[in-house]
Records
---
Amino acid sequence: MEARGTTAAGKAAVLLSGDGSGPGGGAWWWLFTAVGVVAAFVAGYVLGRRRPAPAERPEGRAVGRAVGRAWGPVGAASRVRPAVLNKHDRRPAARRRGVPDGAVLPLAFLGLAAFLAVLWAVWPDTEDFAPEPDGRPTATAAPSSSQAPARTWEVPPVRVEEEEPGAWAVRDTVVQVRLDGLTAYGAGDGKTRWNVAAPAREAVCRMSPRAGQDVGLIAYGRHGKPCATVVAVHTGTGKALWQRPVGGKGVYGVAVGGPVAVIAEGSVVLGRDAESGAARWEYPMRESCAVLAVDADPARTLLVERCDDTSARLTALDTATGKERWTRALDVASGLTASVVSVTPPVVAVDEEDERGTRAILAYDDAGRPTATVPLVGPAGTIDPSGYRPVVAGGRLFVTVEESSSVAMEVLAYALDGGRKLWSYRDEDMLEALAAEPDGSVGVLRHGGNVVVLDPATGKRLRQVGPDQRPGEQKVSIYPDLYVAAGDHVVVNKISMSGEPALFGIR
């Protein structure tokens, strides 16, 4: 929303444009203007007439009655002949009071100007019609434009300059996972559906990359301590379905693959029933190995394991049984960070500390055979999978590319069956996040707070969702995430640098 300190020029421009500010928008403005014009000219006319001062009453009543009739019907329509006074019958004219003839028109315009000034002074700002926040993270209606779809709602930031874990999109709900708890919002209206606070002196330290079958996993931990408690949360109600304490080094990662919750803890990966927490399977890791990244779908669970300072591997498990399907050694020889980009097909991002080492997005087939390698650093710029989440859909990989100063202006598409570049899309605005659309196209969040939708096969721009950002408006912070829930686009700012909303909807 705009600040309340709107300038006079800004208010005048809004009123004259009839953009819908205030009740009734432009229709009310023109109605009041028309009434003001008529009223001002009538006032000018009345005040400017030559009105004789009260004089002595004419002798006798006959002349007075005749003069009075002279203002009524005349001619054939009147039975009374109008009285005519000649110059000898007239009394000396009284001194004229009022406004000279030449001042009538200026006075009328002066009255009009005064009316408009009063109307401008009392006309309410757009914000006066929006609900005031009550201190809770509740969505408020955002201003709309009559010429384009608008940001439909927004939630004020809860924490400033501190990164939050993330969010899940499930059906028509977006669940924001914060350090101090979880809040669910309707994707279409931003209304709060439920809220769960973290336990006292604990914070959310792990979350599943996505929720499955209305269940998401989080883990809590105390400051400076390992993540020690896993909780399964029903995304429709916020109810804790079950929780489990974890000892040792705590939780390395959690994921949900359909009806199975996957928990990587210590030297073992556990499969549990997502709704009840009952044990299903156990997968022991090799000695000295630890899980760097985990994700799952109903068919497959992917693990990126680091076993010592010079080796790592990618392992695929059967989500239902925990049986190892295949494992593939990763070509690394130094420390690394890793993330799972896609479970099916298997795609992972590996960023080795050695600048001459493996720094790429790696794709595999269902048997674990490599199919594509896309370098993170290339002629077009740098791919940052931790800041700009890649998207895999339809056998293609979509990434944003950072140029100088960590600014992304381009989207690239690669084939997963060979790694060849398919197309590029360049925008005049900074690009902030990607999301897969329900129809298979690719949504691209622009810094201006709207979304452009691209054809996945050609990269051509299909449509725009949401209006262009207004001057001085700042809705998108650094490294946001874009979600599509029940056809609605929701932006989650995991960190608020300058008061950007925690979430806002675009339609």
---
Amino acid sequence: MSIWTSGYVTDVGYTFGFYPEMSPASLTGALRMSGHDVRLRDDFTYCELGIGQGVTAALLAAAHPEARFYGNDFNASHVLHARDLAAATELTNLTVSPASFQDYVNDPDLPDRFDVIALHGIYSWVDGKLRDAIREFIDRKLAVGGILYISYNAFPGWSAMLPMRQLIFDHGSRGTGSAIDRVKGAIAFVEQVKQLGGGFFRQNPAMGPKFDNLKAMSPAYLAHEYFNQVQQPFYFSAIAEEMSDIGLSFAASANFVDRFARRTMTAEQRAFLDALPSEIERESMFDYFANQVFRRDLFVRGSRPLAPGQANSAPGQRFAAVKPLSEMPEQVVTTTGAASIKRESGEPVLAALLKRPSTTEELVAALSGGAQSTLNVGHSLEYLLAAGCIVPALPAAGEEARSRSTEVFNRHVLARSAESSDLMYLASPVTGQGFSLSRIEMQFLEALAAHGGAVGDWTAPVWDNLRARNERLLKDGKPLASDEENIADLKLRGAEFVAKRVPILRSLGIVQ
């Protein structure tokens, strides 16, 4: 490893994921629901440190055409992909740099201050000198009133995982071939240790299922998570202290499931937390109840509080549905327990949002005949957010301009899906987030727009494309052999797509 990369894996590209917690609407929604009166101007500035393949930054830039987005990455292949994606989707508001964290702060092309700085995972993967450079960047570049999103591997949940990580790292470091080859070899080696009854797995029974989950993950992701020379989980209190030293204060968790997990604790546990004298202590102790493995934190450089009683209702905050009623779960399971909601409370809120994205006030007005109070609507919104049925949305103003920009981005992603499954997110002008579709669903959407008509009319071209590439559908883990079987299965999937996904896509402004 060169000094330039400081032990960070650069010989294999990172995954092509989109991280919804990093979207502006999600950031401000989480803050407002935590009592902070935070809003972003239309022309806000946003910087992602460690941009990876650039998928999140590019999608956000497409969904916020008046804002300016910047990012850096010291993997040259990442920078090239991010720049190519920006060019292919006609983005003029995304600038990507190959500068190191130490040099990036002095880049003359950067604005003086950013309204948002975000970094996903990278803080746990780089050494102390680079973390110092990251904090210097945040200190010098985050505006007053600005938002910092920082996610990182966390203690105490990572405590038992570090020995397994070291085993993977040590074996992979001695291996040969590409990083992907070494990942596969290391996983096979650890599997052998597990099958031979290694005492680590016997005395840490939770590690067996964790390792089984790990085996199903992308080798590219595992290379970055397990092959970096640095793997540093943090206690929340340590991160809070480091951010406090540069004038930032903890504001909220960016993850709606983690936020909801307080509701799934026992009454005694909640009372114990509430009795602690500071927010930092309460947040730190929550991690012990949750055995927290990964944190997504929001820090602010100053904020205005909402009026008392407004936090749960988040006045003016708009929400949008991303799942149909049939997929609303009966309970939400978190790291501290599970909680259910009365269907007569949750279903009307989700049904109203399926009709149109709405603010809390609009929901209360629309459901007033059902005796839905602001407090009840607020509780239902928290449940639906944690269940992944809804997401925070952008204001209605500016949606037309956002639609023009996201349409260009989505056309490129749909065209790319004919040959590749790397980009699996379409941009919504309503939420400013990505909406995930499978590769087949991407092709359904493109064929439906081109051909229309009955399901069989637009699933036939999808099959023609798959057959031309010698691809077959899988059913029960096995490929379907005949044309007739594949066409029949495509029709079934197509009918479900029209019934469940197309209405959501229309509501999100992805389909007109």
---
Amino acid sequence: MKVPQLHVGAGTSSGRSTSSPSGPQPPEASASAPAPHADVAVTEMASGAQVSRLTVTNNGPNPALLLEGELLEGGQQHRTCVRDVVLGPGETRDIDTFCVEAGRWEEGQSSHRRQARRAPLNVRAELTGVSSERGSNRQGRIWERVNRFDNARGASATSSLLQHLDWFKDDKEGSTTARQLWRSGTTAPSAAATSPAPRDG
């Protein structure tokens, strides 16, 4: 596949080093960086669903990017991308994935959604191979890392990483609202409002 001319963004300096973001140069001057609204279809494989593979199709006129660790919601179970994938316009490809929802395998569900979310760093460490834990069973270790959220915050019914991310977002928004009400004198903060609570699933 021919990749368009690369665009190098403004540099950011830290000490003696400077880093600059780079990516495919869009055909127009707009900031059309690969985004969740890009017209990319993500489905289970037509030959039969596999935990470790999904099919992606770029239906748009521009290149599209799926990021390493990007979460693909739905289908027979939630997955995460193993590595960055650049798709040319109209290109279809099977990509490598890992499961982040050990307790669900829902027959008949094929389509996945992209919501601009990525797995936390402790999960992505297994994708990049920087984890100090070595061995071939990376899928098993990813499930173990998701299970740590179950143990720490209360079990998700399907051991779903995405459900834990949703709970964390709800807790964060609830805590912010409680603090704002308290500062305005409307109510006093409670331990339940200001601290994440364990979940029952």
